[in-house]
Amino acid sequence: MHGGNIYGNEIEYDFSVNLNPLGPPKSVRDALAAALNHVEEYPDPEYRELRRGLANYWQLAEEQLVPGNGASELIPVIIRTLSPKSCMVTAPCYSGYETALNAAAPSCRIHRIPLRAEDDFTLPENICQEIARVKPNLLILTNPNNPNGKRISANRLREIVDACRTAGTVLLVDECFLALSGGDEDSLIHCIRSEALPAVVLRAFTKTFAIPGVRLGYAVCSAPTAERIRRELPEWNLSVFAQYTGTAAGGTSGYLAASVEVIAREREFLSEELEKLGFRVFPSDANYILFQSRDRELHQKLLDKGILIRDCRDYHGLTAGFYRTAVRTHRENTALLQCLRNIK
């Protein structure tokens, strides 16, 4: 189950997908319009302008970047490239990892690290010991985690990187929501830039720039690993719309700063109001909030009112009554809260 399934339902407010509430910036909208002039041309199969822009932004070699048709294309391709015999994931976390593991590495043994409600679903203190004990070929982490939105501190991530290096484990970190949490300074990309790490970082334009319909993401890793991943991708996997959009998104620092500010303010407002309504709200650093309700049919009741939130009962480690809501604009957040008051 994923968010964003608005088709077949009459949806006025979609809180099930965690997009930037400010919507796409003007530069991205202009780039999409400009790309219309190139629809009679094949897209650049080597994504030269896009890779150059990303390399300049992160101060990386272009050879360390692998653009893809959204993170959802890259996840199974990375797994197929690495061919892990064992993989460690957290629970709960994004279900797409296990889906990709089952498809791209069907014989892979999956070890789940339980995240507990009493710890606000943060990483357990013994995670490095578990890495040393299990010695998985691959460890997948999300920073911030989905569905609860807690970030991994830079110091903690450094400890995990060291544990993975000792255990011979490749670390895959999904940072698709990190920019909107204001945590880009803690990105593992900075470590990959300065030293050779057995790690892959996954990023996406989808959430940061509110363009899920464009489909654009990228992976960052060592140049040899990047070349192996690229060989698994189909030709022309990025449309001219995706490439123009990604190139234009490079000069949007003001937009991102404003986005982080709005999200932080609205996240605090929405969290406080949800708690006043009697929900158990878990701390978040991201543009989404996990909360728990005694009402196991809340998702359907909101859907009947034209509001879509994410029912999280299908996450490993969660049950009926756990829900995730995106942090949207103040007007939208207020509409959600008013509907919840009317239901209760």
UniProtKB/TrEMBL annotation:
<dbReference type="InterPro" id="IPR015422">
    <property type="entry name" value="PyrdxlP-dep_Trfase_small"/>
</dbReference>
<dbReference type="GO" id="GO:0008483">
    <property type="term" value="F:transaminase activity"/>
</dbReference>
<dbReference type="GO" id="GO:0030170">
    <property type="term" value="F:pyridoxal phosphate binding"/>
</dbReference>
<dbReference type="InterPro" id="IPR004839">
    <property type="entry name" value="Aminotransferase_I/II_large"/>
</dbReference>
<feature type="domain" description="Aminotransferase class I/classII large">
    <location>
        <begin position="14"/>
        <end position="337"/>
    </location>
</feature>
<keyword id="KW-0663">Pyridoxal phosphate</keyword>
<protein>
    <submittedName>
        <fullName>Aminotransferase class I/II-fold pyridoxal phosphate-dependent enzyme</fullName>
    </submittedName>
</protein>
<keyword id="KW-0808">Transferase</keyword>
<keyword id="KW-0032">Aminotransferase</keyword>
<dbReference type="InterPro" id="IPR015421">
    <property type="entry name" value="PyrdxlP-dep_Trfase_major"/>
</dbReference>
<dbReference type="InterPro" id="IPR015424">
    <property type="entry name" value="PyrdxlP-dep_Trfase"/>
</dbReference>
<dbReference type="Pfam" id="PF00155">
    <property type="entry name" value="Aminotran_1_2"/>
</dbReference>
